[in-house]
Amino acid sequence: MHVRSTAPEISSLLTELKHLRESCLAMEKEFGASIDEACPESRSSVQNLLHYLALRQHDLRKLQPRLTALGLSSLGRDESSTLAGLESVIAVLESLAGEPHGDAAPADCVDFQSGPAILGKQAAQLLGPVPEGRAVRVMVTMPSEAAESYELVKSLLYAGMDVMRVNCAHDSEREWESMIAHLRRATEESGKHCKVQMDLAGPKLRTGPLPHGHHVVRWKVDRDGRGKVVGLAHITLAGKHASPESLSAAEALLPVPEAFLRAVRVGDTVRIKDSNKKKRRLMVIKIAEHSCVCTWIV
Prior knowledge:
By secondary structure, the protein is an alpha/beta fold. The chain is 41% helix and 16% strand. It has helices at residues 2-30, 32-37, 43-56, 63-69, 82-96, 114-127, 150-158, 173-190, 244-248, 258-263, and strands at 139-141, 163-167, 195-199, 222-223, 229-231, 234-238, 252-255, 269-273, 279-288, 291-296.
C-alpha cells in the first residue's frame, strides 16, 4: 500500500531529477572547449564544477524535502561529486519504480571516492596541510598594522594562523611586502608553516560619484545650564546656482527653488514642516546671491 501510494510521487521526482541531469550534461557540452583547455589533472574538476553550477541554477528547496521524506539524499552535499550524487538518487528511484537504470554518469566523471580525494588534495595545495588537532585551517586577514609590527604577525602565527590573507584592496605593495617579510621571518624562527593568500581587489564601483538624495538636516540652538538660549542656529536656504563658498560655510543647508530666493527679503518669516510634521519658523537675516541665511525662531 505504501509503495502504491508513493508511486506518483516517485514518478514525479524521477522526471524532475532527470531534467536536472540533462541540465548538467547540457552545460558540460556547452563548455566542452573550456574542459579541453584545462590541464589534464584539472579537467575532471572543471567538469564537476560545471555540473554543480548547472544544478544550482535550479531552485531545489521544494524538491529536497520530498527526497528526504523517501529517505534519499537531498542533493545538499554533492559539491565534490555532483553528477554522481544525482545519478545515485535517480538509480534508487528507478529501482523503487521497478524501472531499469538507463543512463549513467560518464566514465570520466568524478565519483564518491575520487571527488572528495581531489577536493582534499587541492585544499592542501591551496591552504596547506591539515593542522594537527583540528580539521580546519585558520585564515587571518592582515590589518594595516601588520606591515609595521613583526610581533603582531608572530603572535598570530603562534596562535594558530595557517593562512595569511593580504587584502590587496587596501594598503600598497610596500605594506604587502612588509607583512609577508614579517611572516617569513616568524616561520623561519618558529619552524611553523603558513601560507600567504593575495586577495586581488575587484572593481571599486562604490567609489564613483553618487547622486544626492534626500537626507535629514539637523540644527539646534546653544543653551546654557539653565536652558536659556545663548546661541542661535543658522540655516542656509540655497538654490541650485549657489556658490560653493556659501554652501561650505553653512551650518545647516536646505535646498529651495530659485524663484523663492528672488522673492524673499530680510525679516521675512519662512514656515516649514520638519520630518516629524511639526511646524517650524525661520527668520531671514541675510540675503546673498542664490541663497539666504535664516535663524530658527524657537
